[in-house]
Specification:
It is built from 17 helices and 22 strands.
């Protein structure tokens, strides 16, 4: 696929890094020549210096035969105008824009074909807020990713010595709770002086303390899964109530606003060093959100504000080093769980799952929304995992036995690459391709004829049906194309 990326900032670089590794033809536009030279030296891509709203610059970047435009420059206005120029002059089929302003997102007329012609709006801050919200709901998890409209989830959890299933094999985990359908799809194990190593899972694989375990299950079973791998006793997990946010920038403010909407559920403190910013936050946030002026790396400030009683400490400033240091300090002083926002991948790799419970990359949080547009076939959701190395993919089965390599065939008969796991199948969802939405179907079919969506943990004899939503875990992104090819509908299959 031929792709133009406007903007070589943090988001643009992360997007380019991910897409180049999938053998796409990438061109990046930016006004900073030095930044482009650095990108060209690190990745197999082409840089074009100039303003992305200039038709001549877009033409030089190859817009006439480009398949996808991703406009992620710093300014909303630049991204929106670039999409409109791409539509009017070059007819680029797919156009994605990074837009921070909620006003544009709320009005489809502005972003539709007659407006700025944006097919999809992405907002990293919104993606981060949504993702952190899931981690608040499941405080034992290191990652939470949703599929099939939230009916199924992929979670990762650090196996803890003394938890019921730690020290047991995968087969023993299945047999101990046969009524709970879960699929353990991967383990990442720590070794001295080495990065975490992928461990393929079968029935004989033993879960060891310290393993990062990836599990797929229906949403209603997630709490049980986390308890069996992380909790030493049957005491119910303490919900997150006391939250401290370090940094009152876009992400910190947006998250505090969301948490403040649930009056009485959370006790939120936000620490910001800049006095003017504190005044602005105090005027915009709900009255029960406490705004404190100070440095989140100040030990005395954290102690005075009861850091030892905080359930979740979130370091969300724009400075990686400050986020790391404040998180380490908060953890040492008694915060139950800490999360640090870290842009540099090398830093995130070093810190994730150590003294810092979760090291979160802003770009990785929203990358899946972009990848779903790049994937071939009927891909519904993509989640980038392990800092972009692994991936979870939801793809819809289409066609029939004449046009598909998978419809009507058993899981054991599928020519899947080695190490690719079919984690689960969601069957009975409304047809995402069809002309009717769920309400239209309900009005035409008797209630007892409707089939409630069903989450299935596939076995070797499970037969795939058309419109099944199949969720895969891929330990290496290079396997993506093979899976897409297998599920692609072809009129000339036979």
């Amino acid at each position: 696929m031929k792709i133009i990326i406007l903007g070589a900032g943090r988001v643009g670089q992360s997007v380019a890094d991910s897409l180049v590794s999938e053998r796409n033809d990438i061109t990046v536009i930016d006004t900073d020549a030095e930044r482009l030279r650095d990108l060209e030296s690190r990745f197999d891509l082409r840089g074009v210096v100039g303003n992305g709203i200039d038709p001549a610059v877009l033409a030089e970047a190859g817009a006439k035969d480009t398949d996808l435009l991703i406009a992620c420059a710093a300014q909303d206005e630049t991204n929106l105008v670039c999409c409109k120029v791409a539509q009017l002059l070059f007819n680029i089929p797919k156009r994605i824009a990074r837009v921070r302003s909620m006003g544009f997102q709320a009005d489809p007329l502005l972003t539709g074909p007659e407006g700025f012609a944006v097919d999809r709006i992405i907002c990293p801050e919104q993606s981060l807020t949504r993702y952190i919200g899931k981690l608040i709901d499941y405080p034992e998890a290191m990652q939470v990713r949703e599929f099939a409209g939230g009916r199924a989830c992929l979670v990762s959890v650090r196996a803890r010595a003394g938890a019921p299933m730690v020290g047991h094999t995968v087969a023993e985990m299945r047999s101990s709770t046969p009524e709970v359908d879960v699929r353990l799809v991967a383990i990442y194990r720590r070794f001295p002086e080495e990065p975490d190593r992928f461990v393929a899972c079968d029935g004989g694989t033993r879960i060891e303390p310290g393993d990062e375990v990836f599990v797929l299950a229906a949403r209603e079973h997630i709490a049980h899964v986390l308890a069996t791998l992380h909790r030493r006793d049957a005491t119910p997990v303490r919900p997150v109530r006391r939250i401290m946010i370090a940094g009152g920038g876009r992400v910190g403010q947006r998250l505090a606003l969301e948490l403040g909407k649930e009056s009485g559920r959370y006790l939120v403190k936000i620490v910001e060093d800049d006095n003017a910013r504190c005044i602005a936050l105090a005027s915009r946030l709900p009255s029960d959100v406490l705004v404190l002026q100070g440095d989140a790396t100040d030990e005395n400030l954290l102690g005075d504000e009861g850091i030892d009683e905080i359930d979740l400490f979130l370091a969300l400033t724009d400075d990686d080093e400050d986020n790391i240091m404040s998180s380490l300090l908060a953890k040492r002083m008694g915060a139950r769980r800490v999360l640090a926002l870290i842009n540099r991948r090398s830093y995130a790799d070093l810190m994730h799952g150590t003294q810092i419970d979760i090291a979160l990359s802003p770009a990785q949080a929203m990358l899946g929304e972009l990848l779903a547009y790049v994937r071939q076939g009927d891909v519904q959701a993509v989640h980038s995992l392990r800092r972009g190395v692994a991936e979870a993919l939801e793809i819809v089965v289409r066609g029939d036995r004449k046009t598909s390599r998978v419809v009507g065939r058993k899981v054991s008969e599928l020519a899947l690459p080695r190490d690719v796991h079919i984690g689960l199948i969601v069957r009975g969802l409304p047809d995402s391709d069809g002309a009717h939405d769920a309400s239209e179907v309900a009005s035409e079919v008797a209630p007892d004829a409707l089939r409630a969506p069903q989450v299935i943990i596939p076995r070797s004899a499970t037969v795939l049906e058309s419109n099944d939503h199949v969720v895969f875990f891929l330990p290496h992104k290079r396997l993506v194309r093979d899976v897409e090819k297998l599920f692609r509908v072809s009129a000339t299959f036979f």
